[in-house]
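Design request, tokens follow.
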């Protein structure tokens, strides 16, 4: 029986408390036989030790493992050879990880991609353009399953048949996957060969402290952290600070100086983060010479003169339909119908009411 997994279900078991108990009892099976005095001698506060004994009596081991099996949840502990190597190197690694899906191999390079929930069209576009070639070449994309940039990063990796890992601030049982809007996305991540994971046991709900704490895992799993878009006060910047603490690379996408959601990455760049404008900047920063450098995609040509007129006035920068009509000198009805056909063909993308080229 894995007593470390059992201990991970106790709500008050921090890494520091785990380390003290492990050092004192060595074999955690002994902890399950211990009395209050012995647990206090191990370094647990008396009230916490009493809470543990009460919790242990109310939560039979058989029931705990039955719940894990029912949800198809697997575990990996810090002293397990399958525990992610990069994560084991941080100062406060989770002693137990709960996960559904497949853990990536240590040989697979990984990149954390994080940002604000209130993304702009620019942030979405940049996230897709950077993640697409990286994920398609085997770089594991790590993020937090949140709305906004996190969700775009996961979905983009899936779209190119890449691997992505979502680290949650809740339990990973189906009922507790958070946010609710991304439950389907979490299942797609698993179905496509990735994983969702957490240090919190099944049944653990959202809390004020759990999301900032999970950010250290996102940074710890990754060679570097890329901040796409974030205001000055953002959880994404907590992840970046963790990456710095762990001596990992911090990368950031530049924004207009007037952009409130770009203030975070702009400030990181001022402080020395690697400025990223293309995927090759990331490969260089992470020292991934063995990965083929990304090749720019040629600008496509339309099927007729009308489509080409529209393509000639489009770029990665989104434009509204009135701008396109004005610049292409096309009749509004012709431009509108042509844009619909071009979107079906995949030549353009409409995002938040604006249109950009998809190359």
């Amino acid at each position: 029986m894995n007593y470390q997994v059992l201990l991970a279900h106790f709500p008050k078991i921090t890494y520091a408390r785990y380390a003290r108990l492990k050092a004192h009892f060595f074999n955690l099976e002994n902890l399950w036989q211990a009395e209050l005095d012995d647990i206090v001698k191990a370094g647990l506060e008396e009230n916490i030790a009493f809470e543990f004994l009460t919790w242990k009596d109310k939560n039979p081991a058989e029931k705990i493992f039955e719940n894990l099996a029912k949800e198809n949840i697997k575990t990996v502990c810090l002293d397990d050879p399958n525990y992610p190597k990069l994560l084991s190197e941080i100062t406060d690694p989770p002693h137990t990880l709960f996960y559904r899906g497949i853990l990536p191999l240590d040989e697979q390079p990984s990149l954390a991609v994080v940002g604000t929930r209130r993304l702009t069209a620019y942030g979405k576009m940049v996230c897709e353009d950077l993640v697409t070639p990286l994920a398609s070449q085997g770089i594991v994309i790590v993020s937090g399953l949140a709305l906004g940039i996190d969700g775009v990063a996961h979905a983009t990796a899936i779209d190119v048949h890449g691997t992505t890992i979502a680290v949650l601030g809740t339990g990973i049982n189906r009922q507790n996957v958070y946010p609710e809007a991304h439950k389907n996305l979490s299942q797609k991540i698993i179905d496509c060969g990735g994983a969702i994971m957490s240090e919190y046991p099944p049944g653990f709900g959202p809390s004020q402290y759990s999301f900032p704490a999970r950010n250290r895992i996102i940074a710890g799993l990754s060679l570097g952290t890329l901040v796409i878009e974030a205001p000055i006060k953002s959880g994404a910047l907590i992840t970046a600070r963790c990456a710095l603490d762990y001596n990992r690379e911090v990368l950031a996408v530049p924004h207009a100086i007037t952009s409130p959601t770009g203030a975070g990455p702009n400030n990181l760049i001022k402080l020395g983060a690697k400025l990223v404008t293309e995927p090759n900047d990331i490969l260089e920063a992470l020292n991934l010479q063995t990965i083929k450098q990304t090749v720019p995609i040629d600008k496509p040509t339309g099927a007729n003169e009308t489509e080409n007129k529209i393509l000639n006035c489009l770029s990665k920068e989104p434009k509204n339909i009135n701008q396109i009509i004005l610049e292409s000198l096309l009749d509004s009805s012709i431009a509108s119908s042509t844009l619909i056909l071009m979107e079906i063909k995949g030549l353009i993308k409409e995002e938040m009411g604006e249109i950009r080229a998809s190359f």
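Comment from the thread starter after seeing the answer: thanks! The mean pLDDT is 90.
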